[in-house]
Design a protein that fits this description.
homotrimer; 331 residues; UDP N-Acetylglucosamine Acyltransferase, domain 1; twelve-stranded mixed beta sheet; ten-stranded parallel beta sheet; 30% strand
Chain lengths: 331, 331, 331
Amino acid sequence: MLHPIAEIAKEIDARLVGDGAVQVGGIASPQGATEQDLVFAEDPALLAAAVKSKAAAIITSEAAATDAKTKKPLLIAKQPRIAFARAARIISPPRRQAAGVHSTAIVHHSAKLGQHVSIGPNAVIGEDTVIGDRTRIGPGCTIGSEVVIGRECYIRNTVTMYSRTRVGDRVSVHSGTVLGSDGFGYVRNVTTGRYEQFPQVGLLIIGDDVEIGANVTIDRGALDATVIGNGTKIDNLVHIGHNVQIGENVIIAAQTGISGSSVIANNVILGGQVGIADHVRLEEGVIMGAQSGVPTKKVVRGKGIVFWGTPARPLRAYLKELAVLAKLAKK
Amino acid sequence: MLHPIAEIAKEIDARLVGDGAVQVGGIASPQGATEQDLVFAEDPALLAAAVKSKAAAIITSEAAATDAKTKKPLLIAKQPRIAFARAARIISPPRRQAAGVHSTAIVHHSAKLGQHVSIGPNAVIGEDTVIGDRTRIGPGCTIGSEVVIGRECYIRNTVTMYSRTRVGDRVSVHSGTVLGSDGFGYVRNVTTGRYEQFPQVGLLIIGDDVEIGANVTIDRGALDATVIGNGTKIDNLVHIGHNVQIGENVIIAAQTGISGSSVIANNVILGGQVGIADHVRLEEGVIMGAQSGVPTKKVVRGKGIVFWGTPARPLRAYLKELAVLAKLAKK
Amino acid sequence: MLHPIAEIAKEIDARLVGDGAVQVGGIASPQGATEQDLVFAEDPALLAAAVKSKAAAIITSEAAATDAKTKKPLLIAKQPRIAFARAARIISPPRRQAAGVHSTAIVHHSAKLGQHVSIGPNAVIGEDTVIGDRTRIGPGCTIGSEVVIGRECYIRNTVTMYSRTRVGDRVSVHSGTVLGSDGFGYVRNVTTGRYEQFPQVGLLIIGDDVEIGANVTIDRGALDATVIGNGTKIDNLVHIGHNVQIGENVIIAAQTGISGSSVIANNVILGGQVGIADHVRLEEGVIMGAQSGVPTKKVVRGKGIVFWGTPARPLRAYLKELAVLAKLAKK
């Protein structure tokens, strides 16, 4: 479907320079663009490339556009990436699974499905589970009993939710992810020398607008709850242990692991393969570099400060240590 | 269901102080407890909090109970956590999938199912596979041919077992876990410069009382077997390569990886994100700190000794190195 | 089925010394061999063990065979491991899922299946998807719309492919792997302080002869494509981010992660748990030791050179640093 660029400009709150009648039907990068594509370019160099591309129109910034000479329509936005993301949702909305329950899905008679819910082939929905309006559950998902899923969620293929998991509104979960599994809590019996499982019967509570990647594992609480705050984004293959408390708008990159009972405050950013031991506290706005590690019970403070290494220290100090060591080794 | 606390005390071999007629119907933490919950408190501070909570009764230790003043019944146990875990199994047993084969499960006619076996929706059970009494197989599991699973196992959702995998009794496997996949064994053909797969046709043998987390991968042996010993506990997203031999009562925390042909002796503890290269030997009782790494063919010895860093060295030595380096960098 | 060893020798292009009428029916290691098994032994010590074993015949090298005294037939090959792998494919071919679409599979009427394709129980195949001749799709797989899979692929159980994923010929994918999920691309909206998803609508293109382990995640490109070159082998629990370009014959060991837009040239070898940040470039033939890390935008060069540590440096330099530090700490 084609959209006049003037209409897109209006929807995304951008200032249009050029011919508003030009039509766009897709989004692309400059190098991949066809004559019907909308592209974006944040700085003058990228804008020059976009101008030379086949693209129909360009989303850009005020600064980049100042000296630009082109007949292509420019959509000048305060936040070009945000504007481009919004344009993309208008121009190429994702192909939707049709609403309704697939004939092969197995939905317990006591489950409550909202309006326009979609349940894919071979999905299994347990006893007393509640699913909100317009939520989509993909093929092969297995959703346990007494689960509550909010509205407009998009649960992809083969996602597992254990019983009593609670998920907010507009949550996205990618394939293979397991939510609400038992925490890794064992007690060594000093008489037998064998490990026995400590009860893992708490909840997993996931807020609104949370997005979770593929093959992630998030354990339920032992007695209380594991909590993921609103707006937090979690990449592939991340592990979150039992009783962990994660705040709002936290970013967790791939393969990071957070051990039991740790607290990650709002707006923390965790790079990839970070390891957070148990009972750690990361205060608001801390940034952990990739592969860094925080030992048990440590508290890490400093909004906007980057930490690196294991045990994690401020980036500046860590880089100095690396430099000193390299110098010594060269003698 | 409610249980008189005197009955629980008897079952878990605890000494009761207080009114044995008090009834409990659930377990909880002190902060989450209702008037019908049983809680536990190992030390005087936790006991003080438990006494102030709404809880009906408290499992505690002799030492903590000495000076306690409370009307709540106390159950005094030698190992309060073990006692609490046992009480939990009596008070809130997990909701059981009903025995029987779900109408949508696909069980090969040659498969042999024991007494009271439960096979969930859409599970697939292969040719000549044998499943022991009271074992539960969750929805969406795909169990290959000639697999042998013991008694009272609890295999959650969407678990894959490749053909000829052997699993002992009372084994728990969480969702998304893959058992018996091909090892990562390739040979570079010097003529073509391309990699060819070395045969990966051995077995995977898992002992009794093993517990395996979610989205774990354990490869089968190449020609011989990968072996996981009795009582070993494996957390989420762990990788175990081909021909690895793991002993009894080994603890492996999340996201740890063990490469091909390594040997992990009894009672070893591996923290999270530990990396063990191939052909390594960890002797009995070694403790590897989180994110530590052991290079190829190394032998690590020392019962109860903690190792840290990559390459892993005794914790004491490693901490001294860190201190020396930090001091140099401050000059 | 039994095969005369003379026939095997001919098929694998090995020189036969001894009785060609001896029959073999399986492959094994020397310690596990029965009287009908073929084993391999690359060096004199292994050959001595193989000679003492019960094995029927031995694949070995010219050098190892020179002084060997045995009545067992020897198959002398230039590349004994390659020869053994080929013999294995003749002697014990994997048990094949029968061709045809299982009655419980859900194949969209617009999907195009080649000759002798096998679709397992409960597999779901989407709209306009194309599957090449002799490709096998295992039970529980969910293959999206407009996916293209080549010929002779072996897709195991519960594999997810998102829409428009493209897979070459002779590709092997193990269970639980997710191909084509959304990349981890978010933009912070400076007005609201919240993260919004950047479009993740590109492709995932996988070449020929690629082998992918279990529970791997490979994201699609944001606007362009994520690309995996021919002959590349990927171990379990690996993460590959959006827009990553991986060359040919690359080896990626378990739990390694590669962030968005990085380029891994041909013949690179990545050990286990390696972390590659975004926009990194690893040039041809670089070898990254296990757990090493490369920070954002770095270029690493050096065919056959091993790098270790985080940030990764040449192995020689890194080992010297470790030695210097250990020495200082001992003072």
